[in-house]
Amino acid sequence: MAIRGPDVSSMDRFSASDLTQFSGYQVRRRESIARIHSMTIEAPITKVINIINAAQENSPITVVQALDKVLEILRSSELYSPFLGQQVGDPSSDYVGGLMTMGIKRRTSNADVTTSSKSNITSIMSSSPTNPAALSQISAEVLELLQTEEQWGFHVFQLEKLTKKRPLLHLGWKIFQRFQVMQFLQVSEAVLINWLQMIEANYHGRNPYHNSTHAADVLHASAFFCERDRVKEIFDDLDQVACLLAAIVHDLDHPGFTNAFLINAGNHLAVLYNDVAVLENHHVSYAFHITSKDDRVNIFKNMDKDDFRCMRQQMIDMVLATEMTKHFEHLSKFNGSINKPAKLEDELSASIPNGGRASTVSVADLSSPENKTLIKRMLIKCADVSNPLRPLELCREWAYRIAEEYCNQTEEEKRRGQPIVMPVFDKKACNVPKSQIGFIEFFINDMFDSWDDFCDTPELISHLEVNYQYWQSQVEAAAKEIAERQLKEEETSED
Fold first, then answer.
1. Which residues are known catalytic residues?
2. Fold (CATH) for 91-387
């Protein structure tokens, strides 16, 4: 409702003091309006556009035309979204397009896919808290394997097998000990173990890929990245713990279907989150929801309120950053704010004799809240899709698991009569090597080049090169086999 002054039509009924008061009100109102109009409220992109407009005034026609095209791009609402050129018959384009799609126009369907809004958390929380000593009674094989968890080649599938599909509990506990998470959160061992058990129970074991083993893998990668020297210089304890916890919950209660599938199906989560980052919003929201239900699993219960708010905000931001439609936006911002200034600093420093420093662009600047946010987003994004940079044995297993899950989605889409989000993932014609090559070329190469520039991960880049060559050889071998088969068929038909 608008704020109104006295009724001017009845001014004759006012006293002198009333008139003075009203006159003062009018003056103050005019001054407020003048201040508002004098304020310069514009976004950085608006400033850029204004500078380009000014530059056009005295420029040759060819430059004006070129800058017009630049302005057209800058005014786009999809500034960071690349154009996906369609190559007929190229499986990788279907794969990439499917991952980058927020949603497709719905067809009428009342079908839904269930997620465990009523999960088995009840049975876990109703039982007595786990004895922390239980983890000390694990087999010698598991203990021996956990001793290698600091290595990039840690075999998470072996842990999955040895723990009977409870890798997140065991690896989580080992990493929590190394990072002293219990001391930071000021909770008992029992609470941390109960929480890990509850979280693992709310990952769906039936999913070939998005299960607790994937969560354990992302946790492992996040811990590995947190130990890089550059990251350790910048992150404090809260930053590190937030990264570990975000990795653990980042796919919690994943139903084994993509956002586009849920949107097309009219799923209740898509309705709840307005078709925007549906799963990512659900994962992190559900994590805080079930954590706050019982003190026996509430790892945040002893945190300072301000620290908890900060922790919660960081975890939410990181989990939402794993949503692939924002991939290029996050990468561009990371490069623009973190890598390019850092590269310039290194180049200038190298040019100064006796190891002098060219400027103060260093840990202090990278440690600003804004820059740490960009780094944490990139950290969890790299951890989430690090499969192509794992040793070949692990890389292959992950590739075929994700392909199986996507093929299952395609089958379900056919059954429901929904749009096929990723046609390349059809059980009858799925080409895993080609899809992996497309994924590496479109998403992985540039992102990990940037991440390697930032925190130095040569081992990962070496694995990536080996794995890419492997997938290429598989494609070539398949093509050769098809050509030989066709030649034999032609020779047989001639006979």
1. 210
2. Catalytic domain of cyclic nucleotide phosphodiesterase 4b2b (1.10.1300)
